[in-house]
Amino acid sequence: MSQELITVYVEGTPVSVSPHDSAAAAALKAGLAHTRLSPVSGEPRAPYCMMGVCFECLMVIDGVPSRQACMVRVHAGMRIERQNEAKVWA
Amino acid sequence: MSSACDFLVIGAGPAGMAAAATAAKLGVSTLVVDEQPAPGGQIYRGVEQRDANKPGVSHDDWARCAALAQEFRASGARYQPNTQVWQLEKNRKVYVSDGAKASCITAKRVLIATGAMERPLPFPGWTLPGVMTVGAAQILYKTSGWVPHAGAWIAGSGPLLWLYAAQALEAGGKFEGILDTTPKANYVHALRHGINALRAKEYLDRGMALQQSVRKSGVRIIDDVNAIEAKGDGALNRVHVHTGRHWQDMPATRLLVHQGIVPNTHTTRSLNAAHRWDKAQHAFAPVADAWGNLDAEGYAVAGDGAGIAGAEAAAVQGRLAGLEAARALGVIDAAQRDQQAMPLQAELKQHLAIRPFLDQVFAPRAGLLTPHDDVLVCRCECITAKQIREAAMLAGMGPNQVKAFTRCGMGPCQGRMCGMAATEIIAHARGVSATDIGVFNVRPPLKPLSLAELAALQAP
To answer: Which of B42, B51, B117 has its CB closest to that of A1?
Structure first.
């Protein structure tokens, strides 16, 4: 596994992650308990399956909403934010 | 944008890699599309990036998967990672997107090798942050080296549970305990498959070794758990465990759940190919012949997406599907195919010998299949088991009417998480079998895509 770390910004806070990490893994490493609010009930949700099936990890990545954070690999400077608004679709 | 190939393989797990390598080496123009950034699928995830000497990696049969990935890379098959399939048409036009632009691939043969997913079994509190699947934790371990250190419980049943527990412990992870929901009676029922299972003794040996290594580590194991509930306000902080006649309450910050794996049929169902209810595996699987051919012309399936048989069997099935593709495309004749297939078929039979035993031992606990009324079944649209039951009893609705009536299965996951449970709940409520009830229809796009991506289809 590559030891060179890169910096991404999770909710604005810089976090060092491996370039192999997914955005969802970066959120977990940053200690984010929840990654979105359910647009239906407003309850907090977090990544569940990590393989693109459950869609619980929908986040705003580099300003683009509703991305499956578990399916997106990090890049240096990536901005990873919670998706808190109801029904935001790209 | 559009392109063409003779043989299109969807998925770069063991089945997809083996199929593509087999066909490409015979001279078939082969293209593999896969949603991941690197080959391996879920089971061999990160195979090219991982260090074989890291703790826990040995349990993943690393040498075998690395060899397969190398063979695939050297085979001459074209490989398009980070590519999502969002629509398949009967005439083998397959629509994909790289996340920025959609395009269309026209193929003469298509192999669907989209593998398995964990059986989604709704239980109280499963939507709380802090709860995720064992498979999810294993992906985090494989790709990011992440293992839990405090407050973590594992709950459920199945070979993957023990594999993950063993490797995470070896990698320095810590668990408060393992809540094993495997019914004791399953082991007794499985004995009748014992003699057959001995023909695949290496599987038994591996499974026993994993369980022993976990038990020897001293981690607390609670057997024959009837039910679990995740509790907390906004995030998990306790696990309720029901054993025998009483409930126990345990502090928890992370709960990793697993109830076996099932074929991921989303893609095959979107083709309206025939599916059957596999009673032993308690799941739907596509109807396919010995070569994996579906009842949709030019389409075939291989690997766990055709029925759970494990990674090694998946690779063999992939090779058989690769030979069949070469035959169908006129590169080899049927006699050549049959001759090359013979040793593979013998090998496949060997791998399959263990399945009736494993299916029986790890059959899901009946009481967990039909959640109580207040349990959220559809995570996306927040639909409870009660809402599904009530709709099902109105004029004997099936899954698709229940979906239209309640919105169950209409969220972004498109019923991937709630579909099986909805079928189970409706079948149980109406006193009929899952076969009679069927499952949600699948409609494109298989994954949401933006209008900008879609518009790129018209670009030259």
So the answer is: B51
pLDDT at A90: 39
Asked if B455 has any chain A CB less than 8 Å from its own CB, the reply is: no
pLDDT digits (tens, 9 = 90+) for B249-288: 999 999 999 999 999 999 999 999 999 999 999 999 999 9
- Which residue in B51, B132, B416 is closest to A47 by CB distance? B132
What is the amino acid identity at position B409? G
What's the CATH number of domain A6-81, 3.10.20.30, 3.40.50.720, 3.40.50.300, 3.30.565.10? 3.10.20.30
Strands of B113-245 (E only): list them: 116-118, 131-133, 152-157, 177-180, 221-222, 225-231, 238-243
Listed by start position, the domains of chain A span 6-81
Residue of A nearest to B43 (CA): A51
Looking at the domain B2-117+262-332, which fold is it?
FAD/NAD(P)-binding domain (3.50.50)
Residue A89: pLDDT above 50?
Answer: no
Q: Is the pLDDT of residue B180 over 50?
A: yes
Contact B382 A21 (CB under 8 A): no
**Model confidence pLDDT, tens digit, residues B408-418:** 999 999 999 99
Task: For residue range B188-235, list pLDDT tens digits in order.
Answer: 899 889 888 888 888 899 999 999 999 999 999 999 999 999 999 999
Q: How far apart are CA B304 and CA B141, in angstroms?
A: 22
Half-sphere exposure of B276 (CA within 13 A, CB side): 11
Give domain B371-437's CATH superfamily. Answer: BFD-like [2Fe-2S]-binding domain (1.10.10.1100)
Residue of B nearest to A24 (CA): B140
- Asked whether A1 and A20 are in contact (CB, 8 A), the reply is yes
**Which residues in chain A have Cβ-Cβ distances shorter than 8 Å to B146?**
25, 28-29
Report the CATH architecture of B122-255: 3-Layer(bba) Sandwich (3.50)
Name which of B132, B235, B411 is nearest A33 (Cβ-Cβ). B235
B132 and A34 in contact by Cβ < 8 A? no
Q: Nearest-CA residue of chain B relative to A71? A: B36
Task: Determine whether the interchain pair A56/B379 forms a contact, defined as Cβ–Cβ distance below 8 Å.
Answer: yes
User: Which residue, B28, B32, B64, B66, is CA-closest to B46?
Assistant: B66
